[in-house]
Records
---
Amino acid sequence: VLEIAIQNAKAYLLRTSSKSGLNLYDHLSNVLTKILDERPENAVDIIENISQDVKMAHFSKKLDTLQNENELLPMYEIAEMQKTLFLQGNLEGADQELEDEIAESSLPNVMESAFYFEQAGVGLGTDETYRIFLALKQLTETHPIQRCRFWGKILGIERNYIVAEVEFREGEDEEEVEEEEVAEERDNEAIEADEEEEDELPKAFYKPPPTIPKEENRTGANKYVYFVCNEPGRPWVKLPSVMPAQIVIARKIKKFFTGRLDAPILSYPPFPGNESNYLRAQIARISAGTHVSPLGFFQFGEEEGEEEEEVEGGRDSFEENPDFEGIQVMDLVESLSNWVHHVQHILPQGRCNWFNPVQKDEEEEEEEDEEKEEKGEDPDYIEQEVGPPLLTPISEDLEIQNMPAWTTRLSSNLIPQYAIAVLRSNLWPGAYAFSNGKKFENFYIGWGHKYSVDNYTPPVPPPVYQEYPSGPEITEMDDPDVEEEKAFRAAQEATVFAAEENEETEEDEDED
Amino acid sequence: MDAESLLLSLELASGSGQGLSPDRRASLLTSLLLVKRDYRYDRVLFWGRILGIVADYYIAQGLSEDQLAPRKTLYSLNCTDWSLLPPATEETMAQTAMVKGRFMGDPSHEYEHTEIQKVNEGEKIFEEEVVVQVKEETRLVSIIDQIDQAVAIIPRGALFKTPFGPSNVNRTFEGLSLSEAKKLSSYFHFREAIDLKNKTLLEKADLDPSLDFMDSLEHDIPKAGSWSIQMERGNALVVLRSLLWPGLTFYHAPRTKNYGYIYVGTGEKNLDLPFML
């Protein structure tokens, strides 16, 4: 009976209240638990407050329906992208594969170069450099690359570019679109057909100067292929090969990069291409102007039996000198003749190897002969442009207004025995090179423009061209006066009358 | 950048590529502390580095309690010995306006240029060619002053103005929020206000007089052109680079107290800016 009474009492205590959903049993047990946990002084006097506190604490807040994820999304996005860099990638297979990878690795030791550059005070910070290192590794894994180098960083207004210089393996180049050339030929034929039909229109004198074809891949300005990305972790984009026309015009304009590869370049003279072409042209100019190495590091490849034929424009291939013994750091700092350019100079034409635009195919030569008979113009011989040959010492670089083109420094004056030689270009601010005697590396960080003491003045538009040969058809004349018209008409009528008279006399004669 | 948070600041500003080599960093840390003690400055800022042909100048500035008072500038060639520079005056600005080209790196180097001046001799007026010599130190002073006046910036809320006049560092400044960090209007020029009085009353009504007492970057000429705002590392760092004085980098980590600017460059104004945009 006692047990039943207890159970009844407990059931009563467990009855949930209709108002608040609590029941007395649980509430009392919570209160007692709280008191035993906290052990307040004079608990009996404050028991009502404790009970109230327990009841208040019972109400939990509803879930926050506000989502505050939006603001930080880009930060997480880039972190996710960069996290993939840190993933190792499939390393299935035995250690054999690992060894192969290490042996053939085309990845440069970016961290080592970064360490040396830091001694010179140039660099992107260790974390950033490491991420770039991993991004380069990703690049070498996705593309068949023979050699790869971290070229540098070009700053832009909205975003920056991280540039990697890459040499593809033999034969693995993605073939350039040859359809463009075929299309051009078709266009030319169509234009010629049109000209023949519309003989009535006066033909213009103007012939656009022949477009100079771009250099083949792996030679001259297109020796390396460049990939860019905005931030490490973002996908790498391949830059198109550079055309000589682009380099020629890039020398005449000065524009900031925005950071978007498809941004148009509005300038005078009009730049043939968008920002990716301008970027490529500037990279080519910077490489040609500022990539240097210690004297003797590279040597010309030995050509057997080909010494008689000198390639026009000088030799353009070189290889590492296995017998290079290194140069003392002090020598590198004191004299600029210990450094040489190892990238070909770009001629005013826009190419490294001279292209004679007067050479034509047989067909075109025939046409030219005909035209020449008619008009007799265009000298056959255009002087060949010559630039300094490969591997010239940089002491021969032109000075800018009494200022040498390069500044040399020892990285540290306090500890000279371990210091490295640092070269800073004054012509392209932001181009650096270092060497510790045996190793060397080039780097560029900057806005991508040449230094000029005077301000930039845009080129003047050329004078208006005389389009058509002046002849009676298009020469302007005053309209005839009324009197002149009357006189003309009278003269005409006279001749008509005379002709009619002649006809009549002829008819008369016939009739006769 | 504050000398006290030098290492972190250099790391944050490293996106522009030019930093300091380890031995310079180490010597700066020690020598700037000593400068602060010797000259009794309230704050010492490492202003930056001007690249010369033969040597580089390292510049530091000392501030007193009032943040907007004229700052004292010091320079050093090796980051250990600092020399005080005289303040810039209008004369020096006029003289150095004619000098073009890079800094040599030798403070006693003199630039020469010929000016045609009119000399009165009695009643006749001659035009003589006068060779004016400007010392490199003077040029340094005026360039630093020009850069400060033009592009030294500070986020809104970092300083506040008391009713008595002097402006102090705002210790409750928690950093700009992300949306504010991307707008040019949340950054001010770190100098006495020039444009502020020209604003209309309607514009002034929105301003808070204790925080908005300097010119904001919004009205810099060319509009929307002379600054490049970028977010690096996702949204964790906002970097402003000046296009008018290339080499000036301002960095700020939103929602934190870290901000600062540093100038590493050749000390020449980019007058081609309108052509380059």
---
Amino acid sequence: MTDSKYFTTTKKGEIFELKAELNSDKKEKKKEAVKKVIASMTVGKDVSALFPDVVNCMQTDNLELKKLVYLYLMNYAKSQPDMAIMAVNTFVKDCEDPNPLIRALAVRTMGCIRVDKITEYLCEPLRKCLKDEDPYVRKTAAVCVAKLHDINAQLVEDQGFLDTLKDLISDSNPMVVANAVAALSEIAESHPSSNLLDLNPQSINKLLTALNECTEWGQIFILDCLANYMPKDDREAQSICERVTPRLSHANSAVVLSAVKVLMKFMEMLSKDLDYYGTLLKKLAPPLVTLLSAEPELQYVALRNINLIVQKRPEILKHEMKVFFVKYNDPIYVKLEKLDIMIRLASQANIAQVLAELKEYATEVDVDFVRKAVRAIGRCAIKVEQSAERCVSTLLDLIQTKVNYVVQEAIVVIKDIFRKYPNKYESVIATLCENLDSLDEPEARAAMIWIVGEYAERIDNADELLESFLEGFHDESTQVQLQLLTAIVKLFLKKPTETQELVQQVLSLATQDSDNPDLRDRGYIYWRLLSTDPVAAKEVVLAEKPLISEETDLIEPTLLDELICYIGTLASVYHKPPSAFVEGGRGVVHKSLPPRTASSESTESPETAPAGAPSGDQPDVIPAQGDLLGDLLNLDLGPPVSAPPLAASSVQMGAVDLLGGGLDSLIGDSNFGAPPAAVTTAAAPARLGAPVSSGLSDLFDLTSGVGTLSGSYVAPKTVWLPAIKAKGLEISGTFTRQVGSISMDLQLTNKALQVMTDFAIQFNRNSFGLAPAAPLQVHAPLSPNQTVELSLPLNTVGSVMKMEPLNNLQVAVKNNIDVFYFSTLYPLHVLFVEDGKMDRQMFLATWKDIPNENEAQFQIRDCPLNTEAASNKLQSSNIFTVAKRSVEGQDMLYQSLKLTNGIWVLAELRIQPGNPSLTLSLKCRAPEVSQHVYQAYETILKN
Amino acid sequence: MIHSLFLINSSGDIFLEKHWKSVVSRSVCDYFFEAQERATEAENVPPVIPTPHHYLLSVYRHKIFFVAVIQTEVPPLFVIEFLHRVVDTFQDYFGVCSEPVIKDNVVVVYEVLEEMLDNGFPLATESNILKELIKPPTILRTVVNTITGSTNVGDQLPTGQLSVVPWRRTGVKYTNNEAYFDVVEEIDAIIDKSGSTVTAEIQGVIDACVKLTGMPDLTLSFMNPRLLDDVSFHPCVRFKRWESERILSFIPPDGSFRLLSYHVSAQNLVAIPVYVKHSISFRDSSSLGRFEITVGPKQTMGKTIEGVIVTSQMPKGVLNMSLTPSQGTHTFDPVTKMLSWDVGKINPQKLPSLKGTMSLQVGASKPDENPTINLQFKIQQLAISGLKVNRLDMYGEKYKPFKGIKYMTKAGKFQVRT
């Protein structure tokens, strides 16, 4: 009686038997046979051989049989295109059927047959169906346009289906509207530039009306579409919000979250003084809380989004701490997310509760969760100062449990607490030292060593402790080795008399026996410092450390704002902008929150206003990894240094730079202020003398070696603003990129007769969000005929607006006389980032994946370079050679580069020895950059 | 939009696949299997898994993974909600949702899935409408079909599909007109060692079973609607009316449906109906531990607590337990370390208790986790939040329906830490 019988035959002649049954005269037998075929198909058996026989069954009045044959057709038409043509006539006939159900079914199925030849026949019936009198047929036809577009985009445009689809947005039936919106959104996704969903107040009104009447899924499409609209003023924003708010009470969580997205986005435009703003805030909390009582999978997505919302507007959920408390049978992925949000919401008011919970979690079974809970306690201490004492004592309690991984986690976080509150909780060090032996994870060992080194003067047996680690120096991970090196140097500087031998030992281990360049470099720097000027060494090594930030993993404000626009999408689950990961995310369309309209608080310039992110509120953030100061001060406890060749080389360059600038001046100083020869210095150089010289030459070798690579090509300065146009101020400049930072090198000349002061600079919005990272600093007034050179650091987190040409930058410079405007073109290669080397496999896959129409080919003439030289030149400007191949006497270089906004450009450079012309093929998902990348290639290669 | 769907059983076999666009090779599921291997338990498989070209979104229900494949940016909640809807539909069609049942009805399943999505866009997901398009299999119908040669595919355009009330079909007729409403509340709570409440909230739903002729228009009003400040409605409820008058006004779907769900989280409003007294002690270097728990009523508004089941996952170090209950039956599984005590009704005069000893692994130190006690119970005729329906009126039809309202309180995730 059941369908399982269709699965039972596995005999050899199965296909043959089915064939016979399909050609049977009996209707009933035929149907049973088709069912068997479908059943085999669903479990993945290949029954394509039966294609002609199944298609023969299509001309029937029996709706079920017809449907079954349609199902089969959709699956196999691709592999049997010629046969599929046979079915076309039946489809065309069915599109005229008096029964709307059959008309709709026919047009739906035709769209699913992904065969080019068939699509041509589809156009006429589809056009009719789009104008059908029955809304059910119209709504099916709307989706069919999206299907057809997927198969043949050009055809859809040529046939004018897009316009018909746009007309359907004003259809009288809400279901048709919803499907038209859905189809248009899907088409628009593959055409980021096209203005398919050109929304205006009238169409918005239509959508809002349809929103109330269509199905839940339709509501999602419409809400997502609304979120892309930019209201013209705060009144319009408010009225849209008012009409969207009822959706928050919908039973479908996807509808709720899409509504939250629209509200979060438009709220940005409302003034905070408005009563409505407060009401809206209050209305947002309950639906978010309700999402947490849904199934765990829904909870997970909701929690990832709440994490964003809490960062953007903590006030919404600040009283809802308790709903994030963890139940012991929550799935682990829900537990970890809840914990994260708990810490974000922790404040002085609720810290006692939170701590009690965290302590409870730290005794659970799941190791990952326990670790995170322990870490969370540390984060609470850092975040809420009043609770620090309680947190520390909680951590001590946990250490007493002697559960190995708990102890290790606790030590790692206690190190951070020491950093945040120096000289406050050192009394616990003794307890920590007791657990030295049980530490087996690098991070915990490194943290413990840091503590010992930092507080060497208070730990009587610090030297013994460190010595014990030194025995297995070469078996330790890099992180621990670096830490140990620094800790022993600190110890030496604090207790010079007893520890000379130890420091000798560690320096020679680090410089002579280690293959790790980071370790060696740091060893040499310390050695040189110690041997030339211990006072300076003390200043450098024992310098005061920058404070660590309260929230170590806050999402950067601009990214956060972008992500808020993507609430409810995959981007919000991954906390990455879609351009960073979505396959075929052709869009470079960065969404941004609408700028806040004039409210009392927005006195900032429009340049920094969107987001309304208070940039001044977080002064004490840890410098990014790889920061030079941080490196020397040894704050590299964070992410372990996994050393891909690239990262390593950039660190090297950093070190070299430092030696060039910072240390030379240190050494220079030492000539004057000869240190009041401490006993140790007299002894040290004598013994250290020999290795130092070799070490130094080694270092200088490094300098010369790396020196050529130490930055991308810099064009000579050109005059940007002639003096006649700017009342005597002449500005010339160029752009440089060095070690990951972009700067604008400027030369200001005063050709007027009066003194110039009060300089300031501002950029207009531009394609890549370039903006000054610091104010323009001209220290002294510029007197007539004087020239000053300065370098203005830039970042790429400014507002984005596409410019024409793409690399156009409009600049305003102000001084005491007037404001002057000029525009300049920046070479694109300053935007090539250091981690632009793509993995080979990835390169291949991406190259294949980018459609051929995005490929652009260029000739670079008169460039007699050999492959090696070209590759090196390009590499120094962050164009990386992924692979090299020689074909028929030509060298092909496959190269990749990445722009600051995450766009990848793939290149194939063909070099023929003896021929000065090079051929460059570029592939990129955003083809508009190709032209500029080509220009960058040309400039780099020719200089 | 949604590209494909794979159904995978717990032993890792793909037993059904359905593609709404081009065919995605089933090898994409390998990424899912990898994730499944990493997760220790089926429940812990992350719901969103990225692969180089696709994203896999999955839900785990009835020991089956429903894995949807998407290629472009699609709201994940949309996909997960849809998967839930698929599960609900299967359950609605076949009574249970399990691998054998799906295999038994594979053609209907395939037809239903085809109707639910078109090119990845949801088409008909209301079970009312689906059932009009594709009739659920019943033994009687199969017999009739084989004899008469008719099919279980409807050939009428589903009437609800395009009307203003898409959830209700026209021409409904009953001889007995009745409307039943169940107010069911679940308490989720965490109680700490000392018996004070860490968190407590109520998840409430009003499920309705309405069998009324024609197009009835119902209104439902509450004695204390102010309790409901966080609600989700079935699409049939007129939201404006609720906003302004706090009255539920709606044209109901035919049959069973969830009218609304609500959430009461304000702590002072949540009464905790039971308490658990516990004393569980492990001693270092002793092979015996003591175990004693007592369950008693608290704030029950005079109603009896029934169906009480106490479960607890004991620490690994517990080898066996020898316990005596004052009522009910108990079991302890020495392999999974799961203690379960079926208490039944609580008689306030004679509180049920369970006491005895635990034999512990010799030499093992005291376990660092304490067992959490899980509680299940039911209270009939009581909505613990105090929600009460005032009256139910019907407009638009002449007959007099039979009306009924039932209340019930249950334990949701009710945990007591020790």
---
Amino acid sequence: MGLLNFTRDPVPEAVSGDMHNLNQLSAQQFSALTEVLFRFLTEPKEVERFLAQLSDFASMNKISLGPLKNIVKSILLVPNGALKRNLSSEQVKADFIALGLSEEKASYFAEQWKVNSPTLTRLAVGQTLMINQLIDMEWKFGVTAGSSELEKVGSIFLQLKLVIKKGSQLENVYVELTLPQFYSFLHEMERVKTSLESFS
Amino acid sequence: QLVSALHNLTRHVVYCGLTRAEDILSLFPENFHQNLKNLLTKIILENISAWRNEAQASQISLPRLVDMDWRVDIKTSSDSIIRMAVPTCLLQLKIQEDAALCGNNPVVSALTVELSKETLDTMLEGLGRIRDQLSAVANK
């Protein structure tokens, strides 16, 4: 086997056997299986649904679930590595062929990869570590009418509630701003936006 | 007793928002020493706006923003994607706890928050709405 694009580690031995079994599937069966796989890749939290769909596929096509799961595990090695390395669809196709998949099936999978990769990339970026991520912001503003020191005040204040994700917990931070601070904050955030856009 | 009385007088003036000499003068009893009355009034008038501002600054409030800094980073690699170029914003807010609780030693804490471009856009939308509401109130 030549050098693979999606991984530098040696591929488990079982993979070529699994590819051989995959080649036995008809085009429709392969297409249906691919659809199940990509639905899972684009929604990785739906594990139960994925397993249910695999189980349905197995019974509809008279394949035992155990071997099917192994085949699926082998197939998934490629898209997972491809995502990490930003592989193109040609590279994905070449890898499948190198692993023993038929050209027709490899082409088909690579095509589906091309269609789904923007979504998958966005998901992977979204999973990247973020420190104290800002999740939500609420605000209210009002007027201070009076206090124990001053009978009549009439100053405007803005209160912000920031919802921040610290590790796996959410924390609320309350902050009060004067009007000049608010305008200055808005101005700075617009500068940040310009900066972010110039790097996108 | 003297200090306490002066304190009460100045507090009263600040509380009621008196700004005219006549109003302050009228607080003194009839037979109060004329020159002393004028001197005290003069001093009070000179300090009144400073005292009002300080009273407002030390009002009870939610924690207040005292400073803000930002930085834009480009994320180039992570365990989920080996090569990428994703800009992200780090925002540091310096927040002072309620001045009334801290007395003379205000506690300032720094909070660093990360915003993705999408989050920033949403935040700007929110801030824009605040600005519009403020103009609407100002124009009434």
---
Amino acid sequence: MMSGGGGGGGPGGGMGPGMGGPVGGGGDGRHDDEAALTEFLSSLMDYTPTIPDELVEHYLGRSGFHCPDLRLTRLVAVATQKFLSDIASDSLQHCKARVAAPIKDNKSKQPKDRRLVLTMDDLSKALREHGVNLKHPEYFADSPSAGMAPSTREE
Amino acid sequence: MGTPAKRPFDAAAASPIPRRFQAAVSAVSTAQILRASGYSAAEAAALRALSDVAGRYIESLGRAAAAFAEAHGRTEPNVADVVLALEDHALDGFPGASDPARPVLCSGALTELARFVAAVTEVPFAKPLPRRAPGSGASKGWESFAAAEREPPLRHVPHWLPRFPEGWEERFRGRGEAAAKDEEDTGEVAVKGSESFAAARREPPLRHAPHWRPRFAEGWEERLRLRGRGEAAAKEEEDTGEVVTVMANGNLVENGRSSVPENREKVLFRLGDKRQRRRQALPPEKCGGALELFVKRTEKLM
């Protein structure tokens, strides 16, 4: 299925350093791995990523990636989704850590657990570990709640 | 951008979702991913920033994959290129990264992805997005002179540029006429007004003024002195009394006595400046007559 697909060179094409791998017993192993990969790629067609295909193709087109194979587009979409959910979970941990740290009275902690808001602060901390530097100015004094603590300011 | 498209429909397939639409779509997708991770709300700025980062991540993956493909002499990336790009982007590493002879197609990055896909619940995008059909051909929206086999109407226009729209001549002429009408009164004077010191064979009265600049208007010394002393306001008063009261009251009053005295200075100052500027642009021969009317009319409108 891989070599018959429209995805270009397939495994026989530019494999890179992988072809120098084990030949003898690894031959069967490679088939298994390819089978696993094939299965994974076909399962991608059943799974619809949250990021729509057209959007992914648009962004990929801007960087010179043109591929008629939809499975690769789905692969990139899923990779981006994983990236975003990693960032989301990291910033969620930051948020929860911030809520847990000050020991306030119990009844004020409950509503905060139920309503978690993504703030620029948490986001920039989470992104920094993934290699993105995001700096957000503190506040613009254009609203009555400017400058207040972010947890009390919900949008 | 990477390699150019081989077929016309390739360019069309990769082309324009308008930028705000794309930002909105990516914001919605990002919001859905955030919600699936447990967030119930997000700051607007944070959502926009994260969706922008997501778009850039996709672009970065695409660029890396295209680069790997080109390094192997291909123009279209395949799955191996994408997997290598993914491994490149795994900043925290992935299992099996230390093995330089690792098989690409079953790399640790892929297994991590597979685990993620198995674990996460599917949240597809709600509405279908418009997409150009790949075989529909690139409609540029314009046609060059050469393609339309017409001669460009103006000599300096090359034939490979897009055609002029229909009716451009009337629109162009109409605009030109409106401009010319304004220029009518001052048409003959404009040339005279911009005579330089050198052309008039006169020495610039002030040392810093170069001789190729236009001549100062007649009577400039007097006006300068008067303005410096603030008497220009008084001098202007009798000339522009009518104009001032039109401005201050909003209705036409001939004599200058019924305007509000306390505002008059301020109004005078503004108008006075405007009149001064206009005067210095043109020699004083033309300051009476048609120009006066023109000034009054525009200031009434203001």
